[in-house]
Design a protein that fits this description.
Layout (H helix, E strand, L loop, with lengths): L7 E2 L8 H35 L7 E3 L2 E2 H23 L3 H10 L2 H14 L6 H10 L6 E5 L5 H6 L4 E6 L7 E3 L12 E7 L7 H11 E12 L6 H9 L3 E7 L5 E8 L17 E2 L4
Helix pairs in contact: 1-2, 2-4
The protein binds S-adenosyl-L-homocysteine.
């Protein structure tokens, strides 16, 4: 699988019409299944090539699978991960919730693919947030929005009160929900974190929800893949429009850009859409 150096971000993000939106997920699924089919064919071809050559290994290496079978399995896993990833980046939070709840295996597959990517990154942004929280002597209330496997809570959950939310309760630390609508009262948290989690096309709803649960003066911390943010000023402006003030950005990492905002007022009641602010992050095939 590719590392993030090779991550590509698509430039064309348009707000779907209602008719498009209805079919979007199915189309992405179809396209991705096609891609998976193509990859399977390729894997079969390369398997046949290898099998006919003198270098082919036939011994069973792991779990009763031959080297060739393992290679094919990896390819298929990669294809599934890419289509799930793309589906999550090109649909709304509500649709994403529907999708993973109708088939929770999707979430597991996404996470095993995601973890495989993360292992290759020189710095995992979660570790930056963990370091930050560890340095805070005062006990804070933290919301980890789009927490994945909830590593943040597993690591600093003794020192601080960490609420972890994601589409599926991967473990007991996690409350399953769409992060556009989390079960926390208003003004309840000191720090809200989105670590690579602004995936939905309606991610400004996630930001507005973070504003609702944060107290005035509370911190909003975001890490996103650099290539997703084509116009940093426009992104910052959109967040400031939701009641935040930029405290700092950190672009020192080649792969991730980090933003710290402070909540200065409540989000306006009406949400102005800002399509195209964040591009989907599409992983290329190796
Ligand atoms: N923050 C974690 C996981 C990042 S992967 C980490 O850095 O390790 C992005 C996560 O956001 C995924 O687990 C995905 O399921 C979650 N996510 C995306 N859209 C979501 C939504 N609308 N509601 C809840 N979780 C969402």
């Amino acid at each position: 699988m590719k590392d993030l150096n090779k991550v590509d971000a698509r430039s064309k993000v348009t707000k779907p019409s209602p008719a498009h939106a209805r079919n979007k997920l199915n189309k992405v699924k179809e396209a991705s299944l096609l891609a998976a089919k193509r990859e399977k064919e390729e894997a079969l071809k390369s398997a046949a090539k290898l099998a006919s050559g003198s270098t082919a290994k036939s011994e069973n290496d792991a779990g009763g699978l031959s080297t060739l079978q393992q290679k094919m399995q990896q390819k298929l896993k990669g294809a599934r991960f890419r289509w799930i990833n793309e589906a999550l980046y090109t649909t709304t939070g509500d649709k994403a919730l529907e999708m993973v709840q109708s088939d929770p295996s999707i979430f597991e597959e996404y996470h095993s693919g995601f973890s495989a990517q993360v292992e290759k990154w020189p710095v995992n942004p979660v570790d930056v947030f963990i370091g930050y929280l560890r340095s805070k002597p005062k006990r804070l209330v933290v919301a980890d929005l789009g927490c994945g496997a909830a590593r943040l809570s597993a690591t600093v959950g003794q020192q601080h009160t960490v609420h972890s939310f994601d589409l599926v309760a991967y473990n007991d630390l996690i409350t399953p929900c769409n992060i556009a609508d989390v079960p926390l009262p208003d003004d309840a948290v000191d720090v809200a974190i989105f670590c690579l989690a602004l995936m939905g096309t309606d991610f400004l709803k996630f930001i507005r929800e973070a504003n609702r649960i944060l107290r005035i003066g509370g911190e909003l911390k975001i890490a996103e893949v650099v290539s997703r943010v084509s116009d940093v000023d426009a992104f910052v402006q959109a967040l400031e429009g939701q009641g935040f003030k930029l405290a700092r950005t950190d672009a020192s990492n080649k792969m991730f850009i980090m933003f710290d905002f402070t909540k200065v007022r409540r989000s306006p009641a009406k949400l102005r859409e800002a399509p195209g602010l964040l591009k989907p992050c599409i992983y290329k095939r190796r």
